[in-house]
Amino acid sequence: MKRSIINHAFHEASACFSRHGWILPPNAKWDITDFGLGDFASFGLTLINLAEEPEYCEKLMYARRGQTTPWHTHIRKKEDIICRAGELTLALSIARPGTPEALAGGFSVKVNGEPKTMAAGEKLVLPAGSRVTLFPGVWHAFYPTSEECVIGEVSTANDDTKDNIFHDFNVGRFPGVEEDVAPAIQLLSDRR
Q1: Distance from C-alpha of 126 to C-alpha of 84, rounded to nearest angstrom
Q2: DSSP for 148-164?
Q3: Of 50, 8, 46, whose CA–CA distance to 175 is shortest?
Q4: How many domains does the chain have?
Q5: Contact 163, 76 (CB under 8 A)
Q6: Nearest to 128 by CA among 112, 116, 141, 140
């Protein structure tokens, strides 16, 4: 991923957070990824770690229309995904997408703390202020259905290098960076 694209994503997300009144912590840890797919416009996400404690963490994310966070699940992480501004659509499955098990029957998730039965293949649309609770093993992909979207996440602590399982084995959590310009910020992956 080119550093110039990362810098642009940082400035765009910062402007959106500011417009929506989000004051960021002084030493925020930024993470901007194309999931190793080389197409940030289609598969991109900008994240900030707001809190990292042994028991829990909180993230603030930004995505534009057309950007999808690819299908994935977690081994240990339980999370609430919260639409903070805009509109967010999630595809959910209790089995690996594309398998016969994923196409059979329904399942339940909590939306705003209340159980909601989902049919196989049904999409969940979260307007601003709404949240969904996802348990380990629930496959999910998400994307904004508004021009831009601010997405919150509150979850149990996890290690992104070990806890994420992507449907597409070519997907990676942290992309390589091509240094075509000077960095505007230091990314979480720069510190590794």
Answers
A1: 9
A2: EEEEEEEEE---HHHHE
A3: 46
A4: 1
A5: yes
A6: 112
Q: What is the pLDDT along the chain (192 residues), one digit of tens a residue?
A: 999 999 999 999 999 999 999 999 988 889 999 998 999 999 999 999 999 899 999 999 999 999 999 999 999 999 999 999 999 999 999 988 888 888 887 889 999 999 999 988 889 999 999 999 999 999 999 999 999 999 999 999 988 778 888 887 667 666 788 999 999 998 987 765
pTM equals 0.93
Report whether 189 contacts 177 (CB < 8 A).
yes
Residue 90 tokens read as 């999630």
CATH number at residue 17: 2.60.120.10
Spatial separation of the C-alpha atoms in residues 49 and 171, rounded to whole Å? 21
Q: What domain range is 128 assigned to?
A: 3-191
Count other Cβ atoms within 10 Å, centred on residue 170: 9
Residue 172 CB-density burial (10 A; 0-12 exposed, 13-18 middle, 19+ buried): middle
**Buried b / exposed e across 116-148, counting CB within 10 Å, b at 16+?**
eebeeeeebebeeebbbbbeeebbbbbbbbbeb
